[in-house]
């Protein structure tokens, strides 16, 4: 990367002359907080831009850092914004913007994680990317591996903490072998990385990956003309299989509930057992169970 030279003072730059080179979607609540904060106490930190010449010979600026603050100024109707002007190339401006966005986020959205791959495609090594973004080199290597294999759904799950990175890589290595995927989950469970709700979340992610595909995008990437009768049949069969699995789980849960209700009815018919419950202060049941065990209340 070229040596960056910063101008010694902040300049007031017209907001309509600033071009965003690495735009990203923002949480509306967080953005509204930025707007209110700037409106109340002003801009605490100037944005960062680099100067360019437009095709008509006039001055324009490329945004390096501060898209949220820039949008907030625009929404407040401001014509100018304080900006620190740096002298960098187009590529360096893009890299600086991308690296800063990635490094800033605690839980990085997929679009920023994909930016890691863009950095690698521009010739940056995983080590240099880790240095620029502040990410752990081991984590970075694993994420790059998942991204290169199109495993967007697993990448998002790893970022949200639903699946450990090592387990995600093992799942990818298992390919379409369900037994190997389940073995990866079992290993994560036995090692203590996936327990309780985390294990349920991981299974849900894997089921969605199998049914909906590896991409996390909600928009179909294929054109309508690519839809074939066989793909429709496959989609229908997958949905039928999913619905059948849900029915089986519901039936199993219902059977267990009926067993519990039956057992409680038999136990509560024993006066000695009821007296023991009262003596121990256990004379009530959750409303859901009480309504099924007896009528007229939820205590013995």
UniProtKB/TrEMBL annotation:
InterPro entries recorded: Chromosome_partition/occlusion, ParB/RepB/Spo0J, ParB/Sulfiredoxin_sf, ParB_N, Plasmid_RepB
GO molecular function, one term: DNA binding
GO biological process terms on file: chromosome segregation
Pfam families: ParB_N, RepB
GO cellular component terms, semicolon-separated: chromosome
Domain ParB-like N-terminal: 11-102
Coiled coil stretches, renumbered: none
SMART domains, A to Z: ParB
SUPFAM superfamilies linked: KorB DNA-binding domain-like, ParB/Sulfiredoxin
Superkingdom to which the source organism belongs: Bacteria
Signal peptide: none
Family from the record: Belongs to the ParB family.
Protein name per UniProt: ParB/RepB/Spo0J family partition protein
């Amino acid at each position: 990367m070229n040596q960056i030279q910063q101008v010694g003072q902040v300049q007031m730059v017209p907001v309509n002359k600033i071009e965003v080179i690495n735009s990203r979607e923002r949480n509306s609540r967080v953005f509204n907080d930025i707007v209110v904060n700037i409106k109340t106490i002003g801009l605490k930190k100037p944005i960062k831009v680099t100067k360019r010449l437009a095709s008509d010979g006039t001055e324009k600026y490329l945004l390096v850092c501060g898209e949220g603050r820039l949008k907030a100024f625009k929404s407040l109707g401001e014509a100018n914004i304080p900006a620190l002007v740096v002298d960098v190339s187009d590529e360096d401006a893009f890299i600086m913007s991308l690296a800063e966005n990635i490094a800033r986020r605690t839980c990085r959205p997929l679009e920023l994680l994909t930016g890691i791959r863009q950095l690698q495609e521009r010739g940056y090594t995983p080590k240099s990317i880790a240095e620029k973004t502040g990410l752990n080199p081991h984590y970075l290597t694993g994420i790059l591996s998942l991204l290169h294999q199109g495993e967007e759904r697993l990448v998002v799950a790893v970022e949200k903490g639903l699946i450990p990175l090592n387990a995600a890589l093992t799942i990818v290595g298992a390919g379409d072998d369900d037994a190997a995927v389940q073995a990866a989950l079992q290993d994560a469970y036995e090692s203590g990385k996936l327990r309780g709700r985390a294990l349920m979340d991981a299974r849900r992610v894997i089921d969605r990956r199998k049914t909906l595909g590896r991409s996390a995008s909600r928009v179909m990437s294929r054109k309508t003309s690519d839809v074939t009768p066989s793909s429709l049949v496959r989609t229908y069969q997958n949905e039928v299989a999913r619905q059948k699995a849900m029915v089986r789980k519901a039936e199993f849960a219902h059977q267990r509930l009926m067993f519990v209700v039956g057992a409680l009815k038999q136990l509560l018919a024993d006066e000695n057992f009821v007296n023991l419950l009262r003596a121990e202060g256990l004379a009530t049941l959750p409303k859901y169970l009480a309504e099924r065990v007896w009528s007229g209340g939820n205590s013995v």
